[in-house]
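In response to reviewer comment 3 from the previous cycle, which asked for concrete evidence that the modeling workflow produces usable outputs, we include below a single protein chain processed end to end. The sequence was submitted unchanged, and the resulting structure tokens are shown without manual editing.
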Amino acid sequence: MMKAFQLSGYETDPALTETDTPWPGAGEVLVRVASAALNPLDVKLQSGAMHGYFPLTFPTTVGTDLSGTVEALGADVTGWTVGDRIVARKPPTSGGAIAEYALVPADQLVKLPDAISFEDAAGIPTAAGTAWQALFEVADLTVGQTVLVHAGAGGVGSFAIQFARAAGARVIATASGNGIAIAERFGADVVIDHRHEDFAARVSDVDAVLDTVGGDTQVRSFDVLRVGGILASTVSPPDEAMAKAHNVRAAFVFHSSDATRLATVVKEVAGGVRVLTDRVVPLADAPDAFAYQGSGRARGKIVLRVTV
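The workflow returned the following structure tokens.
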């Protein structure tokens, strides 16, 4: 038996339970989870808001992002050894990250360098992967361009600032409160306090906008783009008619798990990109951590220390 943080249904509070420890089938690896991280997606899944994209079968174990060590190998798995340090992202429909053990498809495992702690590693997969996908696979950001990153003190935003700067782009970020200092510390060239300043009045002719907020912020972001620029949103599909009226492009970044991309962002972290962590808590505090994730107050990642 193992401990797992599970949902029994939509709009129910997830709870720690005892459940059977799984065993890997063909092509799978059993991972002893050291750390796991929460994401805004986990709260959306619990609410049922993502049922159309990611229908859940209950009970389901919460979480997609994990780090740990290889515990056992299923049939036909090669290239991995028991004890290897790994990081991975589980599919949202199966979840399973916040548990003492998790089954992961072997082709979704990424080797974790010794230089990266398990706690930092758990904070990488979804946030860093989303930022990378949005900037370079969707927006095609290149050296010399300017990008506006909304919520620069969030998990995705803090990675986006660092990735964009490393690529030679100029970065403008929005933030508030202590998030202003965070965005500055992570490398933003300009930080706008969105509670007291209208970003649309200060910014113009940017090449790309990374929207992690949605709503009115997304709508007003069309006004700051240059002709031919792009708005990439991680929260909701942008209005195509509005994009056409502004003579810009718009795209919804539907983050997908990809081991090659994950390996790329892990390499970036090993090379100096920092993981913004709000807090690291023990597995026993998972219910409180989930509630805190849902509050929207977290500055960066909420990480659970699952096993020692």
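Residues 125-138 form the longest helix (14 residues). We consider this sufficient to address the reviewer's concern, and the full set will be provided in the supplementary archive.
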